[in-house]
């Protein structure tokens, strides 16, 4: 996948200059520190991620390498700054699930509502289809209206809620599960079960 350039949408009242563009490209393990800068506040300060504690840069680099080996991990950057990312990983370990992936997207706070999350997901889906994947799933810790809106905007449909499935910050959290069809069948050259 080659890097793609996009012009940033402009929203009245934003502090960033109008017309600032960004590039979406595959991440590398060398991007781990910049990407972790985006992810760490979600871990430390919110229930958006159920992870605790914040992973090290090395752990994050290892995750990127694993995702790139089997799925995809894309980042958006502007002026050399990581401003968002989206990736896919295994949905479940059993062989029958091999055509399904779990996806996540995170965008840096100063870049919300600019279409970056949507563009990351669209490009991620294209990369996953090229690898033969058929279904994408996403879990959203509730409440999270912004994430729900993003997932709806890129074609996910709600499929259910796991009640009180995660406990963080001394309280239980529900997770809404979403699904999006990427393609009907895997390419025949990739094999069948």
Q: Can you walk me through this structure?
A:
The chain is α+β, with helices and mostly antiparallel strands. The protein has helices spanning 32-45, 57-70, 116-130, 145-153, and strands at residues 4-7, 21-26, 72-78, 81-90, 100-107, 135-141, 157-168, 171-181. The protein has an eight-stranded mixed β-sheet with strand order 1-2-3-4-5-6-8-7, with helices on both faces. A hairpin with a 2-residue loop joins strand 3 and strand 4 (81-90). The radius of gyration is 17 Å and the shape is globular. The two termini are 28 Å apart. The model is unreliable at 8-19 (pLDDT under 50).
Number of helices: 4
Which structural category fits the helices and strands?
alpha+beta
What is the topology, as strand order, of the major beta sheet?
Answer: 1-2-3-4-5-6-8-7
Shape: globular
What is the average per-residue confidence, as pLDDT, rounded to a whole number? 90
- What is the N-to-C succession of helices and strands? EEHHEEEHEHEE
Taking pLDDT < 50 over at least 5 consecutive residues as the criterion, the unreliable ranges are 8-19
- Give helix % range: 25-40%
What oligomeric arrangement do these chains adopt? single chain
Rounded to the nearest angstrom, the radius of gyration is: 17 Å
What's the count of strands? 8
Q: Roughly what fraction of the amino acids lie in strands?
A: 25-35%
Main sheet?
8 strands, mixed
Our measurement of the CA-to-CA distance between the termini, rounded to an integer number of angstroms, reads 28 Å
